Recover the amino acids of this structure.
């Protein structure tokens, strides 16, 4: 008899005999060997922001005028917060998590052999009655609690439902995009954050954040044509990273009264402005250099005005951590992935950054058993739930985009251990079963479908991506463009997609084809109120 393999813990490394030994940062992420380390640092002495999107005390008139000249916004750009979940290694998304059907969207259009490849044995296929239905399932191995259909025993779904309230769940919907991408590589240009910034998303402190120190802020690359080095994502993966972004040094210790801190920073800006008027740098770009220095001091004064004495730490945000928070204090202290998720969610949802990426490592989980993948899918679902529930707590919408580099497949052998849950063992990489999906939370009600389908593209009967279905199906760059188009549509701005300043060189075809790729109607008018 074959000996059953043990399910690996959340932070145990995944080392496969048919994979090279980890060498690069991305290799370590894929194998789950690059978990961040560090100490959780608490926030300041004063209370939380009552309303992070509200304006703060006014700067002096002269500094306010300089602030306007420097193009420093008082609040974020007002676009819908956007967060990527980058599952490094090639996670399963289709079938055992999000359901995908054939061209008509019919789940029965996928054969039993196809579902077996997606890790679902014959008695767990969508449409087959459940012996013991879950509390939210449709009793046929499907669950539409979040609008978008999930398998009723999806690890992603269990994690999301665990961390969100029924009220939040009722205002969520989403869409899935069957699309191939290469296995086990960070070279897939999956990350759309630079494009989101081009759509107008920005933050009060920085434009973009990411949990990795990379050009994209995550594991996968950003499309080369969207890269903008001026807004390279700032690394944020722990509470101290958040508080460090608005550090005013020792001034808050010397001047306990925040208005005094602002006055000092304003004085520094005025001295700088005066000195710059009496010196010449002697280089060709004298004016540009002076503007850079001048605006640096003005931005410091502006940050002091808005954040001196204010606690920005996610660790002390009661909506995130504590008895009534998304995480208990103990699990937050023990789990670096929860700290990472809360830190990025805090930055983006509160408007301090326009968009962010949360990378979770260890999703190359074809370990010859099922329990390892189930545990990691549950973790990913909890991180997704954190982002959605925090947006609900703040009363703002959010778009959450989930992707992975490639995917996995099963050989059909069932793991009947408690951790395996009676599903097919993951036994190898398979890019043909890959997909991405997004969820949208709208505090004013569940997003309205533009058409009748929540899938952009479809699977063949054998559960492989139909590569001719959409431009995105076999081109990761166009997958990113499809996500950007749907983000713009949530603002009612999809008609601007091909215009100068946005994506005039896109590859999504004519306006009629582009329209067919949009899933939801507008949920805000251009910008948030």
């Amino acid at each position: 008899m074959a000996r059953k393999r043990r399910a690996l813990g959340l932070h145990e490394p995944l080392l496969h005999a048919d994979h090279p030994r980890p060498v690069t940062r991305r290799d370590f992420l894929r194998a789950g060997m690059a978990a961040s380390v560090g100490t959780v640092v608490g926030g300041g002495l004063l209370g939380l922001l009552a309303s992070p999107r509200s304006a703060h005390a006014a700067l002096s008139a002269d500094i306010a005028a300089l602030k306007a000249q420097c193009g420093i916004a008082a609040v974020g750009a007002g676009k819908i917060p956007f967060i990527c979940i980058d599952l490094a290694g090639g996670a399963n998304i289709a079938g055992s998590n999000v359901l995908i059907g054939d061209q008509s969207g019919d789940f029965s259009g996928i054969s039993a052999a196809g579902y077996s490849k997606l890790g679902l044995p014959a008695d767990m296929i969508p449409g087959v009655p459940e012996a013991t239905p879950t509390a939210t399932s449709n009793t046929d191995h499907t669950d539409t609690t979040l609008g978008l259909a999930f398998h009723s025993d999806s690890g992603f779904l269990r994690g999301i439902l665990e961390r969100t309230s029924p009220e939040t769940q009722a205002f969520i919907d989403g869409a899935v995009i069957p699309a191939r991408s290469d296995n086990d590589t960070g070279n897939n240009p999956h990350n759309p954050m630079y494009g989101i910034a081009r759509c107008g998303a920005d933050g009060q402190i920085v434009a973009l954040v990411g949990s990795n120190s990379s050009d994209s802020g995550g594991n996968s690359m950003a499309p080369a044509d969207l890269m903008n080095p001026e807004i390279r994502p700032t690394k944020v993966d722990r509470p101290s990273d958040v508080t460090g972004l608005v550090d005013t040094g020792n001034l808050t210790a010397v001047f306990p009264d925040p208005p005094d801190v602002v006055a000092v920073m304003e004085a520094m800006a005025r001295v700088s402005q005066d000195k710059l008027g009496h010196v010449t740098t002697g280089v060709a770009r004298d004016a540009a250099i002076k503007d850079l220095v001048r605006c640096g001091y003005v931005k410091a004064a502006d940050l002091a005005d808005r954040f001196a004495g204010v606690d920005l730490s996610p660790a002390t945000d009661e909506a995130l951590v504590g008895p009534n928070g998304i995480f208990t204090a103990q699990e937050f202290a023990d789990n670096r992935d929860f700290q990472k998720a809360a830190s990025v969610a805090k930055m983006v949802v509160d408007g301090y950054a326009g968009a962010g990426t949360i990378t979770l490592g260890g999703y190359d989980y074809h370990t010859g058993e099922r329990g390892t993948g189930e545990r990691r899918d549950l973790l990913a679902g909890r991180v997704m739930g954190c982002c959605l529930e925090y947006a609900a707590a703040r009363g703002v919408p959010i778009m959450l985009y989930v992707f992975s580099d490639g995917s996995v497949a099963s050989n059909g052998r069932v793991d009947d251990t408690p951790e395996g849950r009676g599903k097919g063992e993951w036994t190898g990489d398979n890019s043909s079963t890959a997909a991405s999906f997004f969820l949208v939370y709208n505090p004013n009600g569940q997003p309205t479908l533009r058409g009748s389908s929540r899938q952009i593209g479809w699977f063949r009967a054998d559960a492989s991506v139909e590569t001719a279905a959409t431009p995105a199906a076999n081109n990761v760059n166009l997958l990113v463009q499809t996500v950007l188009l749907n983000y713009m549509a949530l603002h009612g701005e999809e008609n601007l997609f091909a215009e100068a300043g946005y994506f005039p060189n896109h590859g999504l075809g004519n306006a009629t084809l582009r329209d067919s790729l949009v899933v939801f109607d507008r949920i805000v008018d251009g910008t948030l109120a």
Observations:
- The mean pLDDT is 86.
- The chain is about 30% helix and 10% strand.
- The radius of gyration is 24 Å.
